[in-house]
# Entry
Amino acid sequence: MKNIHKSFPGVRALQAVDFTLCEGEIHALMGENGAGKSTLIKVLTGVYSKDSGDIFLKGHDKAVAIHSPQDAQNLGISTVYQEITLCPNLSVAENMFIGRTKGFGQNWKKMNAEADRILKSLDIPAKATQQLGSCSLAVQQMIAIGRAVDMDCKVLILDEPTSSLDEGEVEKLFKLMRDLKAKGVGIIFVTHFLDQVYEVCDKITVLRDGQLVGEYEIENLPRVQLVSKMLGKELDDMSDIKSEQSTYKDSDNNAPVFEAAGLCSDAGIKLFDFYIKKGEVNGFTGLLGSGRSECVRAIFGADRITGGTVKKNGKTVKITKPIDAMKNGIAYLPEDRKRDGIVGDLSVRDNIILALQVMQGFFKPISKAQAYKYADEYIKLLSIKTASADTPIKSLSGGNQQKVLIGRWLLTHPEYLILDEPTRGIDVGTKIDIQKLVLKLASEGMSVTFISSETDEMLRTCSRLVVMRDRKVVGELSGEDLTQNKIMSTIAGGDK
Amino acid sequence: MKDMKTKFSVKNIFRNQIFIPIAAMLLLLIFNLILDPSFFKVTLGYNSAGNPVLSGYLITILDSGSELAILAIGMTLVTAATGGQDISVGATAAIAGSVILRVLCGGNSRPEHMQAPIIVAFLVAVLASMLCGAFNGILVAYFKIQPMVATLILYTAGRSIAAWINNNELPVISDESFSYFGGFIPGICIPTPFLIALLCIIVTVLVMKFTTLGLYTQAVGINEHSSKLNGLNPIFIKFITFVILGVCVAVVGLIKVSRISTINYSVIAKDIEMDAILAVALGGNALGGGKFNMTASIIGAYVIQCLTTTLYKFNVQSDALPAYKAVVVILLVVSSAPTVRAWFTKTWAGITAKNVKEVG
Amino acid sequence: ACGNSSDSASTDTANDAATTDDAATADTTATDDAAAADDSASSGDLIKVGIINNDPNESGYRTANDKSMKEMFTAENGYEASFAYSLKNDEQITAAQKFIQDGVDYLLLSAADVSGWDSVLQDVADAGVRVILFDRTIDADESLYEASIVSDMAKEGETAVTWLKDQGLDEYNIIHLQGVMGSAAQVGRSGALDEAVKNDGWKLVTQQTAEWNAEKAQQIVQSVIDSGEKFNVIYAESDDMAKGAVAALDKANISHGVGKDVVVMGFDCNKWALEELLNQNWNYDGQCNPFQATYIDEVIKTIEGGGEVAEKTIIMDEKGFDATTITQDDVDSYGI
Amino acid sequence: MQKSKFSLKNLTDTNLLLMITIVVFFVMYIAAMIFLKAGFLKPQTFFNILNANASLIIVSCGMSLVMITGGIDISVGGVVALVSMCCAVYLDFHNGSVFGAVLIALAIGLGFGIVQGFLVAYLDIQPFIVSLAGMFFARGMTTIVNTNPFNVSNEQFVAAKNTRVIIPGLGTMNKLGKYVDAYVEIGVVVALIIVVLFFCLLRWTKLGRSFYAVGGNQQSALMLGINVKRTKFISHLLCSLMAGIGGFVYFLHVGSGSASHAMGMEMNAIASSIIGGTMLTGGVGNIIGTFFGVLSLSTIQNIVSSVGLDQAWWTGITIAAMLCLFLVVQSVVIARKKR
Ligand SMILES: Nc1ncnc2c1ncn2[C@@H]1O[C@H](COP(=O)(O)OP(=O)(O)OP(=O)(O)O)[C@@H](O)[C@H]1O
Ligand SMILES: Nc1ncnc2c1ncn2[C@@H]1O[C@H](COP(=O)(O)OP(=O)(O)OP(=O)(O)O)[C@@H](O)[C@H]1O
Ligand SMILES: [Mg+2]
Ligand SMILES: [Mg+2]
# Structure
């Protein structure tokens, strides 16, 4: 790709970007949120039309014209996009094959058999005839990958495929990638996990603010440098965080702010007890689908509560709807940003004030001037990258959307903040910012629940971990016990 | 440099949603101006009751477009919150009108005097059509039936219900004061329907300003899940938009029956739902819900009336009129379609760039 | 024996059920017919009539018409009546098919459209059902029905136009408001006027269909007023439309009625319209007699008695009323 | 029965809705046979439902297709009226042939399809507005072509119109003791062929599946490599084409041209599709369901007219009430399944 330009109204997403991918290499595309990685990929696959620039492909002497994903597929480029882009109303098998096979007729038998073969080879727990919408997020992601790999492709593009996968599945994916590499397939890999980059990649291209920073061999670019290249500045050491964390001293005479007893919801979570103290950061950990999200959703009243009580400062409060929880000072950042978080077409400003507005009530609208003030405040505080406060939130990059949502909840000045996977799909710099923010908030007296798939992160921020398995709370770790091994063994059920 | 600036502002105007209906309106007016300037003549005369009244095509547009404008308000809200449209408004207007006559006549189809004050009759009608709205709202919000289908029920039954309310009689009100709502109030030379529409618009503006209805409906329309997690109650908000539309419908019912002091169940407010939806769309609002611009919808309503009046003026056969209307509508929406506009802006940019080059 | 090929092609589950249903139906057909015969005998020899009418809330005329039919075809008078209402021709045709299957003895029909009836009536004849048309004629062979008791819309038009001619106005600038195009009433009433316009050099300021709709009529007349064109006659093919037109006139302070600027003509003789005549606000109202029920009854009685119907087409007796001569008695006896 | 209950959760939305429709239709029809007797026991009643609704079936097939793709087309009623008027004028005033009339019908359908499809698919204009304009245009054009309704007397046409497909063995005795054969019109045959074709199209072809994909999630379908624009275009094209064919079948059934033909047919088509389990939001639907949807809707109407309600308003109210009941049941079942 040469000299690619792309701009959206108000944003120059890509400026003069060059990118080269060789046969049989795994090439990482790195950059902070909103750097333009996804945009570059979408230009390459014809989802967006480029403003200028050319794309060259081996075996074609002229620049190739790619106007639609279909063209890209025909040229042997197969892609897994950042947000899962499958059709929820079709069956798993259809999702794997639609749009990429030749011919007029649809042979269900053959297709299902083929799909079952792929599912089996990738160990995906789904049936070919199942409706896709009934699969979990991770399974859908694996299906998308399965589809992309099965294509007889020369170029494979993976845009943050690992953000909703657990470690075992990531390993599977890596093995797959190495196999393909051996077959001479060029792979573009986008992720925010530095470990993963160093595990599989050969080369790294770094983007910043829509501009090319450079292309590097993996050996020549140590982690610290990569990060500074991405951010354009040196990153403070992560050890900072740890030292800050130690400021929290758990004293037993501290009564819990919030307490739940025998809580359960119709989403299928078993009865559980829970408490959190003032200024404490705790976390839920467990494998994918172990019910971490369901726990916090129950506390927030997001699912229908079927039993149990919640106490605030020792007094029982009735929480059946989110608004009850909000009025009691609870804030909840959901894990599925696109579905549960953002209100796509509304401006950043409206998205920031939404929760506060709802709490204030129907007859007390926040004035426009006030709304701008709030918006500007949080855009600055969280350094949100947006053209203006009036930009629709859906045109922000994923990471920046997440920050807007955090801003939304901070604006309500909650006593208890629940963050469900706040760092998913977020670049290293921001991740650390968020972790720091969490600790800062905690030190100011806010209670925080922090959920993340990355154990490192949890260890860094949390002072107490609740371990879950099969939608049950199976253990609680704190203090000395907070080590990687201990967590793993508790999750695996080794202890009990 | 100066060129750049103008270009930028031109672009901005193009991008503004409200530009579409205003441009359409201007085009229609210019068309009329060229073909026959008498279109703009407004005269002050006296009606048969000796009251001063304004008349002329423009006044006719304001007068007859009022019902549509009032409906457009409610329809915009319903569209925004539910991503669907209410096709029962015509039938519900028949119900409202029937209720008004029923209360006024008290069961006797040709009373000497009105049996109840008009305001009472109107309030009962408001209640009735709010009930109809609530019925639609429950089906849509609670049972999650798609709006167009849910409202198909009242669309089918509405006119029958209207007939049933008055036991199939066609009551006639001979009292002068009842005709004020569809005509002129003594001493005021502006058609009352327009005044009523104005009142509705003012109320809407106030509601928009002093409540968060706008934000809530948009949020619910765009993303129901996240609205819910932000403490909103999507079911209630969808429901309430239908009830609000119900109020608008009752007002329309009043104007309609007042215009002719009687009712005809099968033709009163016939096909008005399609025009109301068209008004919302001509205002550049997405019929799939989400963001809306109320002003644009209201202007859209008057655009439609302007078009109808223009066509009548040129003596187009009234049953062939839809064909011409269709052509104009298609031209309007095509020229405001994003892809077409993008193309226009591009060529426009090309032209100006070329000009700049030539000059420089 | 499963004649419905659609079912066998459709789904597996549906197939079995369909087959058994149809088979069952075929088996029971014979016994059922016998049962049906028993039925009619046991219910005291009521004559089964299926009445297809237009929607009664279409207009005052229709309401009166429907009411009179309901009053006539009751069990006391020896009838068992089923009603079907629609303003749509195809729904009416479907209703007719249904009545055939229900085994009515007589089909009474007031068709929405003049066209499209011949093949259905053929079916009706095949089934041994007799047809009597009321109110509106249709475009079909005379042999297909027993009798037709209708208003002569053309004559109504002629009466009205003759009256208009007799007024001896200096010039005739007419706004012509038509009913739904193609309905018998519209065709008849427009025909007479068109003829006169052609022969007498009258001027049609505008000729539009307002589809029996007062509101539309109001808009059309409003548009003419706004254009400033001169007119002195409003020929509205129904009272409703005349009312709408008058509303527009009132707004613009154009006087109307006896001795005033504009002559207002309507049809149907609604009571309220005749009152307008009495108050000299309108000038003329043509009658359209909705009370065909007694005539129909007579025809049926004749046929049942084995007699021959003397006249196939019975034209309703109808008048036209002039505002200068109308009396309260007229209003009471002819108003509907 | 038990098996279906057991697998309720595994059924796709499409199949579940289809099942409800079929069950409700049979329950309703059998109930009518038991309680109303009268005509419902005669097979011809059923065939009359088919005869009267052949065009609606065809039009609804097209409508379902568009709805599955996530669009809507409310111009179909207008197109049907325009087709019958144009064919009538052509046959009677220009002494045309039936074959020519068929061509006219197809051409009108194609014309509407191409224009509407282009506007919706390639210019991204909302389908509701496009087809609303289409409806206005078709209705207006119909009266421009010819204002007054009239019967077609063209002999060739009348022969075609009176052609009946006799169904042996299901006839009944009439009042006069004469045996009358049960029959369907050729329109019904056309309709059944189209139902089968559409079923195959949607089920067994790539194109058919891409309609579902586009309706399910347009953005995703695009990224899965489906030509979304073309798919949408084809769906609208086919829908209007069906309106054209349906128009001719309608014309064949009534044998006349009139501006008031097929008034409100679009609503009936939409209602039938919905009753048959097609979702207005796209991605879910089934042609067999649509077929039964049409039958259910007209059976409801037939039942209402058979019950012999004495006041005109009951007709509208009862039909609406039954529609309401149906929709609520559907919605409750779907909601329970989701749980
Ligand atoms: N459809 C769009 N409309 C307007 N602006 C957009 C659109 N898509 C992306 N952008 C803008 O382009 C820029 C690059 O976004 P992109 O999604 O490529 O970032 P990214 O590098 O993939 O970030 P992330 O790691 O968060 O996914 C962002 O500033 C974003 O706001
Ligand atoms: N074994 C399973 N089979 C099928 N579905 C499951 C299984 N486990 C969990 N799920 C579903 O997956 C969803 C995941 O639950 P939840 O989001 O609470 O888990 P989590 O621990 O937060 O996982 P994640 O890492 O995906 O956020 C639940 O809605 C549940 O219905
Ligand atoms: Mg990205
Ligand atoms: Mg989770």
